[in-house]
Amino acid sequence: MSATRRTRTRIRRAIAVVVGVGLVVAGVGIAAVNEQSAKAAQAASVLDGFDPANIIDDAVMFNGATMTAAQIQSFLNAKQPSCASGATCLKSVQVDMPRMTANLMCKAMPAQASATAAQVIAAVGKACNVSPQVILVMLQKEQTLVTGRMPYSGESVSLIYRKATGLGCPDTAACDPNKYGLFNQLYGVAYWLVRYTTPPGTTGAGWTSYSWFPVGRPAGILYNPNATCGAKTVTIKNKATASLYYYTPYVPNTSALSAGWGIGNSCSAYGNRNFYLYFTTWFGSTHYVVTGAINTYWSKNKSAYGDPAGNAVKVSANGGGSYQRFAKGTIYTSDAGTFGLTGSTASKYTATGGPSGALGWPRKALIVRKGVQGGTAQSFQKGTIYVSSAGTAAVLAPVYAKYGSTGYEGGALGWPTADAVKSSASGGATWQSFQGGRIVVAGSKSTVLTGSVLSMWIARKAERGTLGWPVTDASTITAHGRKGVVQTFQSGTITVQGKVRTVTGATGSNYVFHGGPTGTLGWPTGSSLHASANGGGWYQHFQGGDVFWNAKTGSHALYTGSMLKLFDARGGASGTLGWLRSSGKDKGGIGGAVAVFQNGRIYSSKAGTKAVLGDILARYLAKGGTKSVLGWPTSNAYGKGGATVQDFQHGRITWTKAGGAKATRS
């Protein structure tokens, strides 16, 4: 299943062109020859590492996750920056991908119409667990489809790609037309590379026994389809190398290896040599090596991490370091130390960006912690990943500092249940959920929300509601003979005293101004209520009084006592007095207090608590109010002989429709 003869012819022609150019234009010829010489020297250096017994590691070949479809497409775009006029290069070709049922070599694959070559390669690699890098190299070594601008000039797309990977085209016989087609070639190369390893279930009756290139036992491998060229005895070390020999059953001779990319002698074959050259040049070593601090750590923990699944990768971010992936996890080394990650911790770390992400490099080994229930924690430069039955989550600064002040997972918050969330609400902030509550970081404030306070905050639409972000932690206090919890927010307060109450908006600001639960108003005894009369507004009851808000009058408090009792008796904000404008002490006469409303006033003194409204109030104020000769009111207004009368300490004001309000001194 090789294109050995075809490849040799192609190389001969390439050399002939270079020599021809050299004969015509000396300067160009020298440059071309120098380029060829440099390429040959590079190839010779690469081929120093060629081992016919181990051309490629199993872990390198049988890893279907080495490239995504997007990465394959980018690779093809770079290798084929332009396409000859009228040609359809591999980067642009599309093919219908049929639905494939699962078999012993490959998993099921869904159908996809007009799939790109990159999408097919990625899908086939994933389904059969064969590296897309290997498939790309097979395309190149067989038909130069990765770098060719027009592999078969003048032929249709179906003819160009029908033998893409050389599948079903042995050197000694005609091609099998049943294996023609780009999809068949891509799927087939992956299928057969796996099939040659004899997966479970592929032995016994009805199955071909692939045993002539055994792993671990000497076998003769021909140098060339011409048996008179002889064979080399090779003890193949792994299944991946054996699969390559089943696919292209020739080993490069000394002449082929010495020639680099060029032509050896008449007994040379180039398929497996070129596979090694292309793979190493494009993707790095065909072998995974483990060295340095990573090797020291891995040597002590091989059973936990398994075989290497890639070579070490250097990363400059967060101080720099290296990491290497293994079958069961990844080992990282940096100035912070050398530590391995497996399972959910490794997955979460990768999701956060790995060593280039917000967590930085690992700085401690995984430890088991008890907390509310069992779990693990692994520390990094900038945070910790926790894994428990509550979930897998990363806790980063500044949430982490606040979490520590609560006792981490052993404290009231317990284990984290999710990663932190960046809110899009006005002002922006970050919050993270834990078993026992949330940590909120808004501006420079880090606060904790738990229990019924948290439930109420969420019920009030959290940061997007009327409360806004929390600005203090909850505190337990005793005020006015009652014990409760209070927590302050940007635009209000939540209290828990028997029931959970919220005090928000202007009412909340007024409440805080008056000292909150420890002030004169004390604990709220009801929720905020709305009244539509007199322009509409809100009011709320507290132990020590009520707070009122109206768009025109603002927010004001009226303390519990005779004034509030009288106000309520007159219908409150929906009554004749309307909404409260202000309240305070009045030094006139015997002294007392006065509350100013939209439509009147309440005066409270030794003389009593009375309401004064309308024209009588206007006349009273015109006379000087409590500082006038009338003094403080001693009665509410009452009817007498067709008039409305109100008594004061030193007189009265009488109102009639005909004469208006007139004051008389007693």
UniProtKB/TrEMBL annotation:
InterPro entries: LGFP. It holds the Pfam family LGFP. It comes from the Bacteria. This is LGFP repeat-containing protein.
